Amino acid sequence: MSAFKAYERYKPSGVKWLGDVPEHWKVSKIGYEYAIQLGKMLQPEPKLQTDVLKPYLRSANIAWEGVKLDDIKEMWFNQSEILKYKLLKDDVVLSEGGDVGRASYWNNDNEMYIQNAIIRLRSNLYNSNSTKFIYYFLSLIKKSGWIDILCNSNTIAHYTAEKVTATVFLKPTFEEQTIIAQYLDQKTAQIDALIAKKQQLLNKLAEQRTALISHAVTKGLNPDAPLKKSGVEWLGDVPEHWEVKRLKFLVSEPLKYGANESAELTDTDLPRYIRITDVKDDGSLWDDTFRSLMPEVAEEYLLSEGDILLARSGATVGKNFIYRKSWGIAAYAGYLIRARMDVQIMNADFTYLFLQSHNYWSWLRSVIIQATIQNVSAEKYNNVFLPVPSLHEQDEIISTVNTKTAELDQMVAKVKTVIQKLKEYRAALITQAVTGKIDIRSLV
How many contiguous H segments (helices) and E segments (strands) does the chain have? Predict the structure, then answer.
């Protein structure tokens, strides 16, 4: 940021996290500068003959990169509500609940209205302000954690219209707001394009990793090995000397559901209580989601080295985790199913590799494709077919795959570091611009 020019004179903003601001900028409140409107309470049925069905936005539609229009609902509005809750081009929409303070800039001519989980900000008739500037300012106060402080609650957090109204706002001149917004539009678009390219690279590396695993656990390491039909469509051909068996014949004891206990305790001296939401995409566990169980409750569900957990329902169905003793004493939750492999037949690490393959996920899709609620029971998991090489060959495959995936994982880590730095630069640039730490006027 040292390459940017600062304003000549500053004054205290009176707000600790904003620091000093350009002397000619006004420190105001959002409610003084913008017209604020909370959306309409959900109305699934008409109340009057003149009511009309209209599309509306929910909190789920709001994203920083823009409004998501792929899942739009409709509800009934009367004639006065149509005027009150309609979106106009250049409005900003803000999430009142859920991920409070998440905002989108509405740059669309489509007819659209707002539900009461949404707050609309519009430049009012009395004060000239840029809504694109407030969009960037909102991203600053969200990133700073200030919105979360304002919405601190023992129940469900809400960034209400009253709280939005009272939120501090830095007001440059309208000309400066416009220049800052245009500059940030240009620069963030460039940064976002770079991030998108890096994300494409991550996707390619992830696909390369999955393809590597898929080939190794279904075809082995010897490219010249004769193949045979597995008899399972989604598994395809396997080496002629391999077996193919259902999971229920490869475990040392029946599959077992976890504990149906609430996740309330956070005592790290107690057994950890693992839920699928604790599991990262890389197979490790989040530290900040740690929960625990009393020993007498956890006892029946304690995990052993190499135990595999399988998610059985919801959006994470099919996701899996292999337990290591290094995680400490742990039990597992009721929406998970434990598979304890028979080490005389099947290496748990080979099984875990198979669960990362395209073949496993193809099977999963075939199981849940006709279900209204995504659910894979222990009975269904019992019947999934796995390729079974000899234990010696399993060990060779595990060693080779781990070496090759470690190289890919190093590349992924480097790309993720670049993405994180780009995101940090993007956030810093917005912060510096909308708080007047740099004079954008000198750059245009």
Answer: 11, 21
Nearest to 312 by CA among 254, 246, 367: 367
Helix (H, G, I), strand (E, B) or coil at 246: strand
What pTM, to 2 d.p., does this model score?
0.83
Does residue 167 contact residue 141 with C-beta atoms inside 8 Å? Answer: yes
Q: Which helix (H) or strand (E) holds 385?
A: strand 385-388
Domain housing 356: 224-388
Q: What is the pLDDT of residues 205-248, one digit of tens each?
A: 999 999 999 999 999 999 999 999 999 999 999 999 999 999 99
Closest CA to 321 of 276, 381, 386: 276
**Within 13 A of 80's CA, how many CA atoms are on the CB side?**
1
- Structure-block tokens of residue 340: 């304890």
Q: Environment class of residue 353 by beta-carbon count within 10 Å: exposed (0-12), middle (13-18) or buried (19+)? A: buried
Cα 338 to chain centroid distance, Å, stands at: 26
Distance CA 129, CA 143 (A): 22
* Cβ neighbours of residue 104 closer than 8 Å, sequence gap 6 or more: 61, 62, 63, 64, 66, 67, 92, 93, 135
Number of domains in the chain: 3
Kindly report the number of other CB atoms within 10 A of residue 253's CB atom.
10
Do 87 and 150 fall into the same domain?
A: yes
Does residue 14 lie in a domain region?
no
Q: Is 253 helix (H, G, I), strand (E, B) or coil?
A: coil
Say if CB 264 and CB 293 are below 8 A apart.
no
136 and 186 in one domain? Answer: no
